[in-house]
Structure formats: structure tokens, C-alpha cells
Amino acid sequence: PSNFKQTLRSQSIHPVDHNKLLFYFLLFSLDHIDIISMYNTKVAFYAALSNAGHVGPYNMDIILAFNKLYTNVGNAYNSATGFFTAPVHGVYSFQFTVCGSLFGNVGVFMLKNNQIIMHNYEWKEDAAFEYITNSVTLELFAGELIHMRLPAGSSVYDNINSHSTFSGFSHIYCC
């Protein structure tokens, strides 16, 4: 219910029916708490992969944990595991850039709840730096997960200059 008084009128509540009155007031309050928490939940993160240099290629897929955390408003990104967890239902945007500097495949998967939603790769024919960048905007429900994975046979590169990054943020919108 969007208006407590309208709800009371529509339910024909008599002033003496305090239990019913409290019940509808509680429903109204909970609806507004959900709305307030949704609009006040600020989420933004930006992280780089590591200082390790080349990561991969491996003979199996691995989760990429972007562990050089620069920003993590709302603490929705776990830099130890590489997983973003949506704190509330809403619209979120994510962007990644990965760098390759070896011959062969440079590539990544982006996954939502362990299902691939994006796959980007490039076959490199030289040892020069090459970059892949992409972004996506998704509706997520509270608790849904986003993470990046390195496909088997692919490699990426990072060092102190943060060549490979992953970021995301929640959109603030109103009714």
C-alpha cells in the first residue's frame, strides 16, 4: 500500500479494531522500509587483478579474484573470492578490462549465478599489450552473484599499473 490512510479507508477499519489497524500499519511500514533500503543502498566497486604478471593459461577455467581493491562502497564485492553479491533487488552495471601480453588466447567469461552471460576473447599473434573491454547492465535480485572467470587455455596480464580491472555500481532510480 502506498498510502496508509487510503488502506485504512479501503479496509473499512473501525477505530476499535486495534489489531487490524496495527497489522495494516505494519504492512505499510515494511513496504516503505523495503523502498527506503532499496533507494539508499549505494554500491560501487573498482578492483584490479593483481601484481602477478601473467595469469594463465591453465587447463581448466579459474575464477578471477580482482584483489587490488580501490573502491568498495557497500562492501558488495569480495576481493578474496572475486564474487559480487547484490545486496538488494535493483539495476546494476558492470565493466571489465583485461589485458593480454602473451601469444594465444586472451579472454574472460562474466557469470551471473554461475551461468555465462558474456564471453569475450581474442587470439593474439604477438606479445604486445592488447585489451578487451565490455560492460553490461542487469536487473539483479538480492543475493544474486556476479563474477569473472578465465577460460581454460586463456591468459590475462596485470601488474602494478592495473591493466586488468573489474568494476560495478548500482543505479539509483525512483518510482
From TrEMBL:
Could you list the residue ranges that cross the membrane? 21-39, 92-111
What subcellular locations does the record give? Secreted
Listed PROSITE patterns:
C1Q
Give the principal location in a single coarse category.
secreted
Q: Which UniProt keywords apply?
A: Membrane, Secreted, Signal, Transmembrane, Transmembrane helix
SMART domains the UniProt entry points to = C1Q
A GO CC term attached to the entry:
extracellular region
Presence of the UniProt keyword Secreted in the record: yes
Q: C1q domain spans which residues?
A: 38-175
The UniProt entry, under Pfam families, shows: C1q
For this protein, the record's InterPro entries field holds: C1q_dom, Cerebellin_Synaptic_Org, Tumour_necrosis_fac-like_dom
Q: What is the protein name given in its UniProt record?
A: C1q domain-containing protein
Q: What is the lineage of its organism?
A: Eukaryota, Metazoa, Chordata, Craniata, Vertebrata
